[in-house]
Amino acid sequence: MLVEPSRAHVRGRATTSSNGWALILTRPDLRLGAAAAAATVAVTSTGDVVLLAVLLGVASGDLVAAAAVAAAGLSVAVRWGSTSLDAIAGAQAVLGPGGAVGSGLAAASAWCAAAALVLAAPRGWRAPAFGLAAALCVAGPAAADGGALAVRVAAGVVAGGLAVAAGRWLPRAAARPAALVLGLIAAVLAVVA
Q: Which helix (H) or strand (E) holds 131?
């Protein structure tokens, strides 16, 4: 009689990690889905800056990049005084794109937030979502007329291309900390402006 030892060919129990990032890092489909949702939020300019930051943080699959995204989101919320993308769209429809209006410090905050998002972009299909969010910071979500729509589309294409290039060619060991520093600078500039 042949008896197998107990627990032979039986999957072990799933261990619960105190760090929720362990699940995200092992699930590429979850990260890709979060990137698709973030791109949808960015293109439609509906929802909340916090939701967009959470989706991009999950899509990044990296704690440092997620912190950079959170800092960039904080800078946008502080600068416009709201986390609602609809409210920000309304303000930018009246005032103009975020990277071109307000004080020099406020405009610099928008550009630093956009640069942080571009540098936080991961490799592959998830990167364009970061570029679309960066375009949202600089060119704004409002497309009131044909000219504004053209600026927004051009900004989305350029920022998306930069995010893909950054994710592909920049070493992650340098890009992620640089993204975090730029995100923190953007937040400080938004507070000071």
A: helix 127-139
Dump strand ranges (E) for the chain.
Answer: none
Q: DSSP state, 171?
A: -
Instruction: Find, among 88, 57, 85, the residue nearest to 70 by Cα.
Output: 57
Q: Supply the range of the domain harboring residue 99.
A: 27-192
| 11-24 residue pLDDT tens | 555 555 556 666 66
Query: How distant, in Å, are the alpha carbons of 109, 130, 152 from that of 71?
Result: 11, 14, 23
Record the tokens describing residue 103, joined without a space: 């004080």
2 inside domain? no
Q: Is 8 left (phi over 0), alpha (psi -120 to 50) or beta?
A: beta
Structural domain count of the chain = 1
Tell me the C-alpha distance between 102 and 74, whole Å.
Answer: 17
Whole-number pLDDT of residue 88: 87
Q: Is residue 19 part of a domain?
A: no
